[in-house]
């Protein structure tokens, strides 16, 4: 046979085009796109299906230790298996430094966590929580050079938050060494003040999580992050943007010619603050930060997805079990909202929700779907065109997607290690059918058939998108 694998009669979709073609794979890479391709050792019939570049999830948390005693429910095996079953072929979780630890030691620790476990390819973002002179001057530049070309900065959380001076020092490193800085933009003091007032009034239920971080908390920090990026003269990415007021800040900055990128997540498209109410502790299942807002904010998120203010859609998969003293019930059946670990699972449902709510409901085009969920995250983090593209020579990371299959999401059908999904009962149209990673079929008929450990670590290039307007001197 001429090819290892030929995918025939599908509709190929990229960030720019939709067209009918066959696709041939040799040695794990895309070798031909055309009509009437020669025979393959393996032939896959994609009649009536979409053929897409595999999803790139640019924001997820796998096997990430916390300082509060809670535990990540997914490690690199269950997390990447769940991702693959949802049509994602590259994940970028975090290697998180805890205070006092060297950044290099954090990276070594996370490699140990991933080794032998991942079923799909992965890279790492860094999280800097302790920006010492040693880190700023040597460790971080060396790691950027070694292929860890993005790092996250937290403006809130006691164990992670950095002050404005520290953020500026880090942005200077991003500018000089060519890294993408990702910013969690919420005002820590506003949250602390509101939380204390709520608790003093006896308001401890999950729903008060939303009242402890209203939109203005995010709007103020988003504006400040943008101002710091302007001062340091470097592009930044604002992660998990939840609604209109933050979008307005980003749109304003973009209008002034600044390179401010933005990410949102499915939870801000389909959940609302009302999902934090529920009976008893049920609301804990939807506690994430920033919190889900309301219908008007969902509409603003969709407008910004369609209009171009957003660049990427990630899951922010942060897996904590519900009925678990190391999860949402960290302090028992009446855990106050401020002790409930923040985050929702969604690594497997990211593409189906964006496709169904976005493409099928006519809010975004199919090309825009591919761009937001695959091509742009690959570009944002220096993995393009190896990932996120259906180009000759690119890795054959491919999803054969059934655009018409109707699925009611239940936790029982998902492959993560979490005991709930916030999307229980959500009806979606479209689901991934077959998933290839570097030419190898890793998911077939809803089952992951890949060996743990086959996933490879990816060194990221310096992202073009992180370049300042005037080259550093
Ligand atoms: N920030 C994240 O990036 N993920 C989970 C929770 C949070 O606050
Ligand atoms: Zn965050
Ligand atoms: Zn209510
Ligand atoms: Zn996150």
TrEMBL record:
One of its GO terms (cellular component) is cytosol. Transmembrane segments: none annotated. Its cofactor is Zn(2+). Signal peptide: none annotated. One of its GO terms (molecular function) is metal ion binding. Carbamylation allows a single lysine to coordinate two divalent metal cations. Keywords: Hydrolase, Metal-binding, Phosphoprotein, Plasmid. The modification N6-carboxylysine is found at residue 152. Residues 50-442 form the Amidohydrolase-related domain. Belongs to the metallo-dependent hydrolases superfamily. Hydantoinase/dihydropyrimidinase family. Catalyzes the stereospecific hydrolysis of the cyclic amide bond of D-hydantoin derivatives. This is D-hydantoinase. It comes from Azospirillum argentinense. The gene is hydA.
């Amino acid at each position: 046979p001429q090819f290892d694998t030929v995918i025939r009669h599908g509709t190929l979709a990229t960030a720019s085009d939709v067209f009918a073609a066959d696709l041939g794979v040799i040695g794990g890479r895309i070798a031909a796109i055309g009509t009437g391709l020669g025979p393959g050792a393996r032939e896959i019939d994609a009649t009536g299906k979409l053929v897409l570049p595999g999803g790139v999830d640019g924001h997820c948390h796998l096997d990430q230790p916390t300082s509060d005693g809670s535990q990540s429910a997914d490690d690199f095996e269950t997390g990447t298996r769940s991702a693959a079953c949802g049509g994602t072929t590259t994940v970028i979780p975090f290697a998180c430094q805890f205070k006092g630890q060297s950044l290099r030691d954090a990276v070594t620790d996370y490699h140990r966590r991933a080794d032998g476990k991942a079923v799909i390819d992965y890279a790492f973002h860094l999280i800097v929580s302790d920006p010492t002179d040693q880190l700023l001057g040597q460790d971080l530049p060396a790691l950027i050079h070694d292929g860890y070309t993005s790092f996250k900065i937290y403006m809130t959380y006691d164990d992670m938050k950095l002050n404005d001076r520290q953020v500026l020092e880090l942005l200077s490193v991003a500018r000089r060494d060519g890294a993408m800085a990702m910013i969690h933009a919420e005002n820590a003091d506003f949250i602390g003040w509101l939380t204390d007032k709520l608790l003093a009034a006896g308001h401890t239920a999950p729903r008060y999580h939303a009242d402890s971080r209203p939109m203005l908390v995010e709007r103020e920090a988003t504006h400040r992050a943008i101002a710091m990026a302007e001062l340091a003269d470097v592009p930044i990415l604002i992660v998990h943007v939840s609604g209109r007021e933050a979008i307005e800040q980003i749109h304003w900055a973009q209008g002034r010619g600044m390179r401010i990128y933005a990410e949102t997540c499915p939870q801000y498209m389909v959940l609302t603050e009302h999902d934090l109410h529920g009976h008893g502790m049920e609301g804990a299942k939807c506690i994430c930060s920033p919190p889900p807002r309301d219908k008007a904010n969902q509409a603003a998120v969709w407008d910004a997805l369609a209009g171009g203010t957003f660049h990427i859609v990630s899951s922010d998969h942060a897996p904590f079990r519900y009925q678990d003293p190391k999860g949402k019930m960290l302090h028992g059946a009446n855990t106050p909202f401020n002790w409930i670990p923040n985050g929702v699972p969604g690594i497997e449902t990211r593409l189906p929700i964006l496709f169904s709510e976005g493409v099928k409901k006519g809010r975004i085009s199919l090309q825009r779907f591919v761009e937001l969920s695959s091509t742009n995250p690959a570009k944002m983090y220096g993995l393009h065109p190896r990932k996120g593209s259906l180009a000759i020579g690119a890795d054959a990371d491919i999803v054969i997607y059934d655009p018409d299959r109707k699925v009611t999401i239940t936790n029982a059908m998902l492959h993560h290690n979490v005991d709930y999904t916030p999307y229980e009962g959500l009806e979606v149209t479209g689901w991934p059918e077959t998933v290839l990673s570097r030419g190898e079929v890793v998911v077939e008929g809803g089952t992951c058939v890949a060996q743990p450990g086959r996933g490879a670590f990816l060194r990221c290039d310096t992202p073009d998108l992180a370049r300042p307007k005037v080259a550093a001197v």
